[in-house]
């Protein structure tokens, strides 16, 4: 059996504690309507909280966390442990069978340490074991993936969750990629944009309209659009669900000048 029509849904760390029953039902609806969702999640704020409790200092460079071995241990504990299992558990409570794992399990995500040595143990995805993910979908599970990966020598690396979602979507030939975050979409001059052309993103970052955690998100969206992907949307989890078909609205990042947000 071949799995087609895959939708990758990235749940931002900003949302993982606030996701509603409606959101989990929309994932169940995707599964039932053959959109075959895969969840990739973050957990940045939870990692920050734990690092604070443990009095470990940490900083971000262009939206990426400088990751020492000590920080990696906390990131893995929070992402692969706490957040991953909470999402699996919520999905299963709403009747969706879910299978949680990190990029380390089954060699799901292979990464290489980024060239910027200052960032420490931060990874860039070089390979995704799509057969493993597809077999889970074929067996009736929604895969739930935490963005900790390993390099070919087994060294664990911290991967930005937006980049991990984009890599999974590209490798598996997903039809759609949704970034669920704590804002209704990308705001330009204070208003939500329905769509933004990929070529405009760099200038918007330069102008400071897009900053912080939205930078890796739009960059991941842009990188994803080089493949077969038809649609990349950045949206909020609440109040942006089209009740008629369970789809989420927000800001679509598009290749072409004019394309209606459907
Ligand atoms: N132009 C923009 N429109 C909307 N949000 C933006 C924009 N630029 C920066 N942001 C910030 O990006 C945040 C979302 O990124 P982030 O906190 O990393 O979310 P997540 O955890 O969902 O990945 C928003 O809460 C907002 O503070
Ligand atoms: C390298 C890097 O920055 N990794 C991220 C992984 C989690 C993440 O991306 O979570 P969000 O969805 O909340 O952004 C981190 O350590 O915070």
CATH fold naming: Carbamate kinase
Task: List low-confidence stretches.
Answer: 258-262
**Ends apart, CA distance between termini:** 29 Å
Helix content: 25-40%
Please report the number of helical segments: 7
- Class derived from helix and strand content: alpha/beta
| Spatial strand arrangement across the major sheet | 5-8-2-1-11-15-18-14
Query: How many structural units, i.e. domains?
Result: 1
Question: What overall form do the CA principal axes indicate?
Answer: globular
**Given this structure, which CATH class is correct?**
Alpha Beta
What string, H for helix and E for strand, traces the elements in order?
Answer: EHEHEEHEEEHEEEHEEEEHHEEEE
Please tally the β strands and state the result.
Answer: 18
* Small-molecule components bound: adenosine-5'-diphosphate, N-acetyl-L-glutamyl 5-phosphate
CATH architecture assignment: 3-Layer(aba) Sandwich
What is the overall pLDDT average?
Answer: 91
The radius of gyration over CA amounts to 17 Å
Q: What do we call the CATH homologous superfamily?
A: Acetylglutamate kinase-like
Largest sheet: 8 strands, mixed
Our estimate of the beta-strand percent is 25-35%
């Amino acid at each position: 059996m071949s799995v087609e029509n895959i939708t990758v849904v990235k749940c931002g760390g900003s949302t993982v504690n606030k996701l509603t029953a409606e959101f989990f039902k929309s994932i169940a609806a995707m599964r039932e309507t053959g959109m075959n969702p895969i969840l990739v999640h973050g957990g940045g704020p939870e990692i920050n909280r734990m690092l604070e409790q443990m009095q470990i200092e940490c900083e971000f460079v262009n939206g990426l966390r400088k990751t020492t071995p000590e920080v990696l241990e906390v990131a893995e504990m929070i992402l692969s442990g706490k957040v991953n299992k909470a999402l699996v558990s919520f999905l299963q409570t709403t009747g969706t069978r879910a299978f949680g794992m990190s990029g380390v399990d089954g060699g799901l995500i292979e990464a290489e340490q980024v060239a910027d040595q200052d960032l420490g143990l931060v990874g860039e995805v070089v390979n995704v074991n799509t057969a493993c993910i597809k077999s889970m979908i074929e067996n009736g599970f929604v895969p739930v993936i935490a963005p900790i990966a390993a390099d070919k020598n087994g060294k664990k690396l911290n991967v930005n969750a937006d980049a991990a979602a984009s890599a999974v979507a590209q490798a598996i030939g997903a039809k759609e990629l949704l970034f669920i975050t704590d804002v209704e979409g990308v705001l330009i001059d204070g208003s939500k944009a329905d769509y933004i052309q990929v070529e405009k993103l760099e200038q918007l970052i330069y102008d400071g309209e897009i900053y912080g955690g939205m930078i890796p998100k739009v960059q991941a969206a842009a990188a994803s659009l080089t493949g077969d992907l038809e649609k990349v949307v950045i949206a909020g989890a609440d109040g942006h669900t089209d009740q008629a078909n369970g789809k989420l609205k927000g800001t679509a990042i598009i290749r072409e000048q004019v394309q209606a947000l459907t």
